[in-house]
Design a protein that fits this description.
Helix content is 53%, strand content 8%. It is mostly helical.
Length: 276
């Protein structure tokens, strides 16, 4: 009698930075994973959902890592109330309109970033956020407020500092939709990737996801870049080139990046990095 193989569950984490996307495959969903991604002593702002693992990170407790929370996830809370309790749909729609208003004002502000109109757009956003905070406090003080509504607004209040970090720092997006979109491809294809039952193949997939997503972040065509890189491997005698760093997008010249954006460009026309 052959013993059944015990199923193992792995989690795919996505870390998006200014110049790279990194996927990490790990069997844990705990705070150890994001903690392990950053060097000790590094200060950063993380745009995340409200998973408790982020709040349990030691650098967060020490004040080195600051959490900014996602408005798209908050929006889903109100949508959930509207779908589960039809009689509360008008209440949820009012809040969804408030959130839409905040998105609209922030979008206008970002359009003026670095321009003379930024101050006016920034001044228009702040009363919108203040009114939303006051509305939540007023409704929570009402004893007749239904429990589903109260639960959503309590969460809103608890996460308010992290939800409003974007107000003082326009570089922080209002939501983490970009990371959600980066996870969509692996999530859709996870049951179709042959070999994914093996740990080594899962790790290899995570490496390739990181590479391809980073190239796309730089608007570089992955196929063109891979032809160029593999040509370098062939020139190095079938080994990885000694100067792998020279192929990384942020180390390329503007003309190289422009050439690598073209799917029809002959990668052989690009000079190979010096392997000495």
């Amino acid at each position: 009698m052959r013993a059944a193989r015990r199923a193992r569950r792995w989690w795919l984490w996505a870390f998006l930075g200014a110049d790279a996307v990194v996927y990490v495959l790990d069997p844990r969903r705990s705070h150890d994973v994001p903690e392990g991604h950053f060097r000790a002593g590094v200060s950063a702002v993380l745009l995340v959902d409200r998973l408790s693992s982020y709040k349990a990170m030691a650098p967060v407790k020490d004040g080195l890592v600051v959490l900014a929370f996602c408005w798209a996830h908050v929006r889903r809370d109100f949508i959930g109330v509207a779908k589960s309790f039809p009689e509360l749909k008008p209440w949820a729609l009012r809040w969804l309109r408030l959130i839409r208003r905040a998105y609209r004002h922030n979008g206008r502000r970002l359009e003026q970033l670095g321009a003379a109109g930024f101050a006016e757009a920034d001044a228009a956003l702040r009363p919108v956020m203040a009114a939303m905070q006051a509305q939540a406090a007023e409704e929570l003080s009402t004893p007749q407020l239904r429990q589903p509504c109260r639960k959503v607004l309590v969460s809103l209040q608890e996460h308010w500092p992290g939800l409003t970090r974007f107000v003082d720092d326009p570089r922080i997006p209002m939501d983490n939709n970009r990371s959600e979109r980066c996870l969509r491809g692996p999530a859709v294809g996870r049951k179709n990737y042959y070999g994914s039952a093996a740990e080594w193949s899962g790790q290899l997939a995570a490496y390739l996801f990181s590479l391809l997503a980073t190239l796309q972040r730089w608007a570089i065509n992955p196929r063109t870049w891979l032809r160029w890189y593999l040509q370098g491997c062939a020139s190095a005698g079938g080994q990885a080139p000694a100067s792998v760093a020279a192929y990384l997008p942020w180390n390329l010249s503007a003309s190289q990046r422009e050439a690598l954006q073209d799917p029809e460009f002959g990668s052989s026309a690009l000079d190979l990095p010096d392997s000495s």
